[in-house]
Write a structure and sequence with these properties.
Layout: H1 14-28, E1 59-65, H2 66-76, E2 80-86, H3 100-107, E3 111-114, H4 121-128, E4 136-139, H5 140-144, H6 158-175, H7 180-194, H8 196-209, E5 213-216, H9 222-228, E6 231-232, H10 236-244, H11 250-261, E7 267-271, H12 277-288, E8 293-296, H13 307-326
Parallel strand pairs: 1-2, 1-3, 3-4, 5-6, 5-7, 7-8
Helix pairs in contact: 1-3, 2-6, 6-7, 8-13, 11-12
């Protein structure tokens, strides 16, 4: 993820690194078995290494990003071993440069989870370099019906998160039929207990703040605003430009300046991991105008948080901003 005051522009070295990683993947494909990434072997939830499935062998899972990896870990319990590739909050998943260790991890996986929709094209290439028999691949974009060019930030869509939970559980049961009842229990416990505060908060916020106009720094906020029933006023062209690392138009910036100056938006939400000079200027303008500001991040923050801990904390921040702005 870009650090503060930087923009998301593809790095020239990305293609070279990807070629090297793919070459490494090809070299290890024939011999790879159980693997563990040096970045993260627990994927924001912690799969136990003490016991395995009924057959004595865990399902090896690789997730391109740790937000999906955290969910996969918690649904799989001690029957799976999940490795997430992107775990560092300062890493940009859009132009991540795969390493040889990532190639080995992918080669040994029986189940792979990628976001798709152009968000992690490097992961698609690594998987394509090793078309292993018996491996199941979940591409979230395909699952939820969002095509290339659509908004890739599906982990910010509450509805899509639940679709992914259903699909991962289904795929685990197919991979390990003997433990089907166990995976059903894991899913039930996860949704009824672990994910409950997240689900409840979304429902409460939607009931209380639906149709409240907000502004945002990029398209990562759009799926969440839709899930909360908020009204996004920031031009979509600006949101997309900031997410894709391209320059926003002067017209869009003028529109946003007007929205802030005349308080047409009640709250401004920005991705603190992609805080460009344009975004910083808008944050300052919003604060100066007395508009509450809330933040989100693109990957788990802190890196060791679970998906629900991370999302719930961010929702609470947005709720506080909405309450301050509306008096409700």
């Amino acid at each position: 993820m870009p650090t503060a005051a930087t923009s998301r522009f593809p790095r020239p070295s990305a293609r070279t690194a990807l070629v090297a990683a793919v070459a490494a993947l090809t070299a290890v494909a024939a011999t790879a078995c159980s693997t563990s990434s040096s970045s993260d072997s627990k994927a924001g939830g912690g799969a136990s290494a003490a016991s395995g499935s009924a057959g004595g062998k865990k399902i090896e899972v690789v997730a391109a990003e740790n937000f999906w990896g955290s969910i996969a870990t918690q649904l799989g319990g001690d029957r799976v071993h999940v490795t997430s590739v992107i775990t560092n909050p300062d890493t940009d998943p859009h132009d991540y440069e795969p390493k040889a260790a990532d190639a080995r991890t992918v080669a040994g996986a029986r189940y792979a989870i990628v976001n798709g929709i152009g968000y992690d094209a490097w992961a698609d290439k690594l998987l394509a370099a090793n078309p292993a028999g018996g491996r199941t691949e979940l591409k979230v974009g395909d699952l939820v019906g969002v095509k290339e060019g659509g908004n890739p930030h599906r982990w910010y869509s509450p509805d899509d998160v639940h679709k992914v939970i259903e699909k991962i559980t289904e795929d685990y049961k197919k991979a390990d039929p003997a433990d089907a009842a166990y995976f059903d229990q894991q899913k039930t416990a996860y949704e009824a207990k672990s994910l409950a505060p997240y689900t409840k908060l979304i429902s409460e916020m939607k009931g209380k703040y639906a149709d409240t106009p907000i502004g945002a720094s990029e398209s990562i906020v759009t799926p969440l605003s839709e899930g909360l029933g908020l009204k996004m006023l920031t031009p979509e062209t600006f949101l997309d430009a900031m997410s894709e690392g391209t320059d926003p138009t002067a017209k869009d910036k003028a529109t946003i300046d007007d929205q802030i100056k005349n308080k047409r938006i009640k709250v401004y939400v920005y991705n603190s991991q992609n805080s460009t000079p344009d975004v910083q200027a808008q944050v300052k303008e919003a604060k100066d105008a007395g508009i509450p500001v809330a933040t989100v991040t693109e990957t788990l923050a802190p890196a060791g948080a679970t998906f629900q801990q991370w999302q719930t904390a961010q929702l609470q921040g947005i709720e506080e901003a909405l309450a301050k702005a509306t008096g409700r």
